[in-house]
Every structure is written in C-alpha cells, then in structure tokens.
Amino acid sequence: MKIGITTFVTDEGISGPKLGLALEERGFESLFLPEHSHIPASRKSSAPGGGELPRVYYRALDPFVTLGAIAAVTERLILGTSVTLLVQRDVIHTAKEVASLDLISNGRFVFGVGAGWNREEMADHGTDPRTRGARLDEQLEAIRKIWTEDLAEYHGRFVDFDPMYAWPKPVQQPHPPIFIGGGESAAQRAIRHGVGWIPAAVNDPAAIPAQVAQLDGNDLPVTVAFVPLDPALVDGYAEAGVQRLVFSLPTLPESETLRTLDEITKIAERRLA
C-alpha cells in the first residue's frame, strides 16, 4: 500500500519545493494538494465538517503552479490534486495544465477532481451549483478526448467545442490517473467513468468494509484521504485492499512541519518504501 500526504501549501507555511524534498527523503510516495480559487465573504456554505472554515482555505496556493515547482526539485514523488474543482474551471485550459504538468514531471501526475462544496465559490465562476454533477460528467468526458485524440471534438449541454488540436499530450497513457473525490455519489461517478475514487477516511476500522463496499464490487483504485494517525486504520485499509492512504499534514512553518512529518513517518513506517 502506498502512503502519501495531503496538505494546504500557503504563503504562511513550508514552501512546496522544501515540502516535496522532505517527503521524498522520508520515503513518502505522493503529495496531494487541494484547490480553492477564493473564499466568498458571504460564507453561506457550511465548512466541511462544520464549524469555522480554517485559515488555510483562504490562503491556499494554486495547486498546479505549486506542483510544477515541486516537480522541478523531486524525482520520484507522485504529484496529485485532491481535489481540482473542475466545475469551476475551463476544461480546455485545464486539459493543457494537466498535460503540461504530467510532461514536466515525467509522468508523475494524478488528477483528483470533485464537484465542490462551496456553492458561492462555484457561482462566482458562473457554475450553477444545482447542475455541477452533470457538468463534471461532461468535463471528464471532454478532457479525456483532448488528451487522447489528435483531433478532439465534444458537444454537450455544458461543454461544447468543434474539432480542435491541443498539445502537449500527457506522458502517461492513455492519460494521467483520474480519481473522483467525495462520498457515495462520487463512488458511483467513479464507477460510471471507470476511474479511481478518493473518499475521506472513516474513524472506526470496523466501518472500512462498508465504506469500500460503496464501489459495488468494482475493482477500481482507491485513495483514502485525511487518514488519522491510527495504526489500526492503516492496517484495516491495507486488509481491505486500498491502494493508497493519504495522511493530513497541518500547514506549519518548516521546522514544525518536518517534526510532524517525522511523527507521521513513525506511524506509517511499515508501509513506506
């Protein structure tokens, strides 16, 4: 089982390149970064998990720029998004960003996507929150065409373009791995598209079989995010056949981050390369 980290890289914590080097030195397989273009001041949408929205949501760096900088100083670290808010993005520009990052990292990118939770944020981008699921389905279909076809064309309700050329193509064939982030509805979307799934970790190892069962027996790759530092959970997910666990790393200054990474390493050392 592969072990990675997810964190918010901001202007107030360790830099992306220094974090990437620290992860690679400690044997971590991957780094996944979230995305928020902005946080609307209205704050009508509830924070994930309730309560006040953490400061890091307001200060997150762009994940593609950050991962590009990390790619330049690392050699093995898998670079992913968890998740790209694709419904807030132009699909053609995003296809090029992903392909470019996959190229400059020599095929190390994993494309995690989600429908998002902040309705005001997506509305600012012109996305109707009520139809974001249907939009995401079309975007996933269209982006795969752009990556895999020399002359790509797509005509849908939300995504519509005539035959077009777009390079570079991704290094990974047929394209970088795609994972859908979220709960049961995301699992069903992953099944429909034949891609991976990124659920949030449960807190009780006894709940793992029921969570994994949401894939209805489909043999799709699973990356579990926000994993607590609990050896029983690590063992439980390994027994369930989960391919990757991603531990949460607080956004801290460099020295504190490195100490926290060492603590996570002790919990996960049996699974690290």
What do you see in this structure?
By secondary structure, this protein is of the alpha/beta class. α9 links the parallel β9 and β10.
Q: Which term fits the overall shape?
A: globular
For the CA atoms, what is the radius of gyration?
Answer: 18 Å
Poorly predicted residue ranges: none
Strand order of the largest sheet: 8-7-4-3-2-1-10-9
In terms of structural class, how would the helical and strand content be classed? alpha/beta
Q: Percent of residues in beta strands?
A: 15-25%
- Measured distance between first and last alpha carbons: 10 Å
- Oligomerization state: single chain
Written as H for each helix and E for each strand, in order along the chain, the element string is EHEHHEHEHHEEEHEHEHEH
Kindly report the average pLDDT value: 95
Defining traits:
273 residues; alpha/beta; 8-stranded parallel beta sheet; two-stranded antiparallel ribbon; 10 strands
Question: How do you describe this structure in short?
Answer:
With 273 residues, the chain is an alpha/beta fold. Helix content is 36%, strand content 16%. It is built from ten helices and ten strands.
Write the layout of secondary structure elements.
Blueprint: E1 2-6, H1 16-25, E2 30-33, H2 56-59, H3 63-71, E3 78-81, H4 91-104, E4 109-113, H5 119-124, H6 132-148, E5 152-155, E6 160-164, E7 178-181, H7 184-193, E8 196-198, H8 208-212, E9 223-227, H9 231-239, E10 244-248, H10 254-268
Parallel strand pairs: 1-2, 1-10, 2-3, 3-4, 4-7, 7-8, 9-10
Antiparallel strand pairs: 5-6
